[in-house]
């Protein structure tokens, strides 16, 4: 996409987000979901790509079912987007949400020992919900993120991650050094590992090889960090979440650790396929789809 097209797309998104942000929180979330489901998702090709990926992974699934899931994927995308722009209200909305899961004990021990923690998660439910809940409980969690291809949009979207919580770094030489120093000092940080990485290795995800970065495991091994998968699953009401901190990933070979991370996320996606971001080009490499 040209710089001019990126600029125009950003203008449209800024206008939509600005308009929706004027609504009360409990109205703006479903309204933004509906906007992505009914208009933006189909027009931008998100629904089509989601259906293509669903057909790749579930070839026996009916076209009608794929379309229904893809529509719900777009809805979740819209809700997540506006929730993250509404990060202060989102945090207040999560005040009553309690974290659960087998990893909470290990997290408490790591925090007491000032041992680094690498939280790993995917674009599922709302990936920021667990960070909000654990921040409320006193943990200072940063992260490392991949900037969006549209630099105009990234300029303001990045603020939804960097304006609260611990230090958040953009991927790149400078950001990687900053994130490494944060962990070395006993910090906590989040990595989303479910996007295509041409520099990664093919690791099974939902039954097909997907190019996956092993950087989360490598960071953990280098700094003796605890690796904890966590997930924020959207509840049926569309507004509240279940936040689960899973049992730690055992240290070992980076590929084996990353394989287990993929398996943990795959289990979530299998249970709630409509909550994963199927619009990513997940199963591809430089030569095209695997």
Give an overview in words.
With 290 residues, the chain is an alpha/beta fold. It is built from twelve helices and eleven strands. It has a seven-stranded mixed beta sheet with strand order 1-9-8-2-5-3-4, sandwiched between helices. Strands 6-7 form a two-stranded antiparallel ribbon. The two termini are 24 Å apart. The relative contact order is 0.16. The mean pLDDT is 93.
Topology:
Layout: H1 3-20, H2 25-44, H3 46-57, H4 63-85, H5 87-93, E1 99-100, H6 104-113, E2 117-121, H7 129-136, E3 141-145, H8 151-157, H9 159-162, E4 168-170, H10 173-184, E5 188-192, E6 201-205, E7 208-212, H11 215-223, E8 226-234, E9 241-245, H12 254-271, E10 284-285, E11 288-289
Parallel strand pairs: 1-9, 2-5, 2-8, 3-4, 3-5
Antiparallel strand pairs: 6-7, 8-9, 10-11
Helix pairs in contact: 2-4, 3-4, 11-12
């Amino acid at each position: 996409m040209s710089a001019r097209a990126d600029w125009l797309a950003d203008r449209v998104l800024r206008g939509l987000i600005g308009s929706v942000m004027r609504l009360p929180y409990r109205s703006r979330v479903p309204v933004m979901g509906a906007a992505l489901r009914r208009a933006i998702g189909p027009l931008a090709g998100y629904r089509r790509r989601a259906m293509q990926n669903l057909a790749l992974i579930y070839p026996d699934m009916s076209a009608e079912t794929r379309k229904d899931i893809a529509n719900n994927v777009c809805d979740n995308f819209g809700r997540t987007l506006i929730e993250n722009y509404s990060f202060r209200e989102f945090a207040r909305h999560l005040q009553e949400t309690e974290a659960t899961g087998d990893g909470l004990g290990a997290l408490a021990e790591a925090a007491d020992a000032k041992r680094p923690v690498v939280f790993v998660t995917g674009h599922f439910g709302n990936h920021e919900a667990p960070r909000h809940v654990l921040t409320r409980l006193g943990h200072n969690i940063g992260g490392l993120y991949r900037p969006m291809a549209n630099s105009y949009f990234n300029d303001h979207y990045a603020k939804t991650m960097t304006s609260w919580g611990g230090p958040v770094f953009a991927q790149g030489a400078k950001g990687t050094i900053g994130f490494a120093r944060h962990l070395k000092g006993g910090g906590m940080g989040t990595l989303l590992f479910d996007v295509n990485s041409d520099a990664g290795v093919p690791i099974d995800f939902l039954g097909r090889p997907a190019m996956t970065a092993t950087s989360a495991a490598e960071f953990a091994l280098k700094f003796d960090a605890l690796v904890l998968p966590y997930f924020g699953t959207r509840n049926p009401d569309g507004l509240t979440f279940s936040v689960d901190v899973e049992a730690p990933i055992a240290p070992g070979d980076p590929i084996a650790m990353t394989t287990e991370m993929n398996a943990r996320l795959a289990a979530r996606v299998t249970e709630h396929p409509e909550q994963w971001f199927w619009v990513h080009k997940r199963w591809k490499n430089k030569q095209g789809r695997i």
